[in-house]
Amino acid sequence: MTALSTHAWRKALLPAESSVQDAIRNLNESSLQIALVISPDSTLVGTITDGDIRRGLLRGLDLSSSIESIIYREAIVVPPQLGRDSVLALMQANQVHALPVVDD
User: What is the CATH number of domain 3-76?
Assistant: First the structure.
């Protein structure tokens, strides 16, 4: 893994106070297909994908709306020490394309 790829996830960090437009911009710029929503103390609050945004727009949110109601707060996370094969198996079992790796 290169230094660039090990830190590419930082582009996916999105403050919890963001708007839907901010989330769309984040997803576009990070190209990771997931935004990691964080609190001011950098704690993971949840995740947002393009599907979450689409569902929010269908419920009447607009680009200036807060992301509060579309944050997925039940995200599956893994610890840094979990091996790659275990992470991939967990992703496949839960049919997800991304899993945040979080420490204490």
Answer: 3.10.580.10
Q: Dig out the tokens for 21 from the structure.
A: 């437009």
The structure tokens listed for 43 are: 């704690």
What's this model's pTM, rounded to 2 decimal places? 0.85
Residue 104 burial class via C-beta count within 10 angstroms: exposed 0-12, middle 13-18, buried 19 and up: exposed
- The rounded distance, in Å, linking the Cα atoms of 30 and 98 is 13
Q: Helix, strand, or coil here: 42?
A: coil
Q: How many alpha carbons lie under 13 Å from residue 29 in its C-beta half-sphere?
A: 12
Sign of the CA dihedral 22, 24, 25, 27? positive
Strands (E), the chain: 13-15, 35-38, 44-48
Residue 10: closest CA among 103, 104, 100, 72: 100
**pLDDT value at 102 more than 60:** yes
